[in-house]
Design brief:
The protein is of the alpha/beta class. It has eight helices and six strands; from the N terminus they run H-H-E-H-H-E-H-H-E-H-E-E-H-E. Strand 5, helix 8 and strand 6 form a beta-alpha-beta unit. Helix 4 packs across helix 6.
Length: 229
């Protein structure tokens, strides 16, 4: 009965708020069946140090030793770049559902061990400005689809930093996030999968991994929706 009620609710929402493919504009889904085949999936081989595809690897972003691996589902380009922008800045939170689904598909088909999901946090000032954390939305969808526990308050960003994309160099990005994160949740001994929307230099993920390791987490790996190339 409850499942039928949810199905009916979805049909009502689809009627009043129809979804359109972000690529071709066809009504029905944010990524129609025809356009899904053309999405910019990351393809192996990958750099063992920074996780970039070797087909798009002009330079290497060294990660913190505490971050064992960085995996990404897509390259940050085309319709995925548009989708992330709409999720992040246009308040299209409904996009978290299909995008989180792609993250789960990746988990099911790749060797990425973990027993806890931890989204990369926003500083409270940015959270007030935006109203939500897009990485949190993705992690919650993943939790619902996999049953993996999600710890929304495991890490806090204790000071604001400029957007990674605004920093001129990798070194500047690393310096900007030094001591910017603290781990407050009891995750000692767990294998954590950090969740974020986009990896640029990997500096933010590295800083989060250091904070988690300091708190006693046994292993930290990262999974992002997209990787900047």
């Amino acid at each position: 009965m409850f499942g039928r009620l949810l199905d009916n609710r979805e049909k009502v929402l689809d009627f009043f708020f129809p979804r359109y493919c972000l690529s071709c504009g066809r009504e029905g889904a944010y990524f129609c069946q025809r356009c899904r085949a053309a999405l910019p999936f990351q393809s192996p081989p990958y750099c063992p140090d920074c996780g970039k595809s070797l087909d798009h690897h002009p330079d290497c972003d060294d990660l913190a030793s505490e971050l064992l691996a960085l995996h990404s589902v897509f390259r940050f380009e085309g319709v995925i770049k548009k989708a992330v922008h709409q999720l992040k800045y246009q308040n299209l939170r409904d996009l978290a559902t299909p995008l989180g689904g792609y993250l789960v598909d990746y988990l099911k088909t790749n060797d990425l061990p973990g027993d806890a999901l931890v989204p990369v946090p926003l500083h409270k000032s940015r959270l007030r400005e935006r109203g939500y954390n897009q990485s949190e939305l993705l992690a919650i969808v993943m939790h619902r689809l996999t049953g993996l526990p999600v710890f929304l308050d495991a890490i806090q960003k204790v000071r604001p930093t400029p957007p990674q994309a605004d920093s001129a160099s990798v070194d500047q990005r690393r310096l900007a996030v030094v001591d910017a994160f603290r781990c407050y949740n009891k995750l000692k001994g767990r294998r954590v999968i950090l969740i974020d929307d986009v990896a640029t230099s990997g500096a933010t993920l590295s800083a989060c991994a250091r904070a988690l390791a300091t708190a006693g987490v046994s292993e930290v790996r990262a999974l992002t929706l997209a990787r900047e190339i």
